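To close the chapter, one final illustration. This time we ask the reader to focus less on the individual chains and more on the assembly as a whole: which components sit near each other, and how the overall shape emerges from the parts.
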Amino acid sequence: MSPAVETLDLTKTFVKKTLKGSIFKRMIRRVTTKPEHVTAVDHVNLQIGEGELFGLLGPNGAGKTSTIKLLCTLLVPDQGTAKVNGYDIVKEPNKVRESVGVVTGGERGLYWRLTARENLLFFARMYDMSDHVSKPKIDELLKLVELDGRADETVEKYSRGMKQRLHLIRGLIHDPAILLLDEPTLGLDPASARVIRDFVKQRLQREQKKTILLTTHYMDEADQLCDRIAIIDNGKVIGLGTPAELKKSLSQADIIQINASNVPEAAESLLKNIEGISEVALSFDDSDAGRAQLRIHTMDAESVLPEITQTLVSKGVKIHALQEIEPTLEDVFIGLTGRKLRD
Amino acid sequence: MSLGKEWRTFNAVFRRNLRLFTSYSTWLIATIIWPIPLLAMNIYQYLGVASSRSVSTTLSQNYGLTLSGMIIVGTVVYLLYNRLLWSTGNSLQTERWMGTIDVLFLTPASRLTMLLANGLSSLVEGAWWIVAIFLLNWFIFGIQLTVTSWPAVAITLVSTMIALVAVGVFFASFFILSRAADQMASSLQAPIRFFSGVAFPVAALPQALQFVSLVIPVTFAISALRATLLSGGGIVDILNQLLPLYLFTAVFLFVGYFLLRIVEKRAKKDGSLYQM
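The assembled structure is written out below.
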């Protein structure tokens, strides 16, 4: 069976624009210097099976949204190609668009002064659906996401979570076979995010058998929802597999997690110098400037622990908790890039 | 291309715009009020320096026009130009601000049909302005219309509206490319007003400047409407104005359509269409 989504060396490059300097300096620079390019999607090769919930996990700027835009034909690739539902994204863009529903989310993307029902009716008409087909479908979709009670209120009165639910069903209005969800829980509170995730997993994948490509930078979300995950960084796919397979790739490594305070920024490089330590990631607590967390990858935790604690204590670090933990996708990312997913 | 599909797209955008327009009470109030000060300004710029009778006598002797007639027609066409240019030309830029442009471009709906629907939906507002201007003049100035052919008036009005929508289609692409739609449209307003005969006859301009008037569709629209409403002109009398208007319509529509395709193609290459 051919994949629902397939990319072959998919590549997209943008010209880097800089607004540095006055308008005259910028004009001169445009004429005299060669433009700098940024490769947003770098020879990406993916295959997503029918009915699969596939995750594209990476930090901001990794190329996730650009990949989505290429697959739904909003961008054209500079190299490589892709097929969505068997249709080439460059040669058959109209067929591709009929096959996909794209959900971007956020505060924009809806008409705030229209009601939810009016928004959906408008988009249904733009998909050339007749009213007698779309109206019952809209009722059904609104009920599915529990917006039926407030369907006739203007969207500007909706909470962030409600808008996201509306975005989701807007993407479903023409009943596409494939859904491209671009960070669908971004900016949502935990309860709303959970509702969205459950909806995606239960209703969309399990019940409606949709093929779903979901982009996210939340590793828990990818771990919880996705059948397979591609880890993307700087436009390249650097890891691919099921969550279990990816974590197993680190099974040889021990992960030590230390919660501490008074941690100097140099702690990361100091600990990396210790023999037997392969990676160190330091992150500071956003809510408490004095607190930080260290995740240390090593082949043998027992042998390096004394030196780790001695190094930290000698720099005045106060260790609150120290434990050996099972690797997470965050650790997989650290192992592959040397940085945390949120950096 | 299926006519049924284009009609459904047109209908969807048209109805959405009417709904959006009526949802803003401040805009409704402004629409009702706006013709009044605009018309008053155009008339009183003359009456501030001379009496209505002396101005009308001068206009009549030199250009065959009355003051109120000249101002009414000029104001109506200028309001239409303003409304149609903004609503058509700015529509894709507005979708970009709303964040809906990528979602819309994913649908099979024709971009041109969307633009036309955006332009023509604003005629509902424009229709009120036309009525308001004439009612104001009827009550305040008692304007005497000299119409021998109402079909000629209707044809002129419809031709004007279509021409102005075509201009809007043409500018829609520029507004997206530059991301400075407001500034571009604003920078056009004063020259259009000056050169097209809104507030004074084109013939009053120096000869060299009158050539500029010939490249502005609004000039021909104003001239044709003045001829049919105020001077009893029929279709044959206004052919010299209608034919250039139709030519402008065809050129702007044709070029605008292809420009739009070029802009969309370029935007898919550099991603600029979806960025604010």
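The first helix of chain B runs from residue 3 to 23. Chain B is about 80% helix and 0% strand. With these observations in hand, you are ready for the problems at the end of the chapter.
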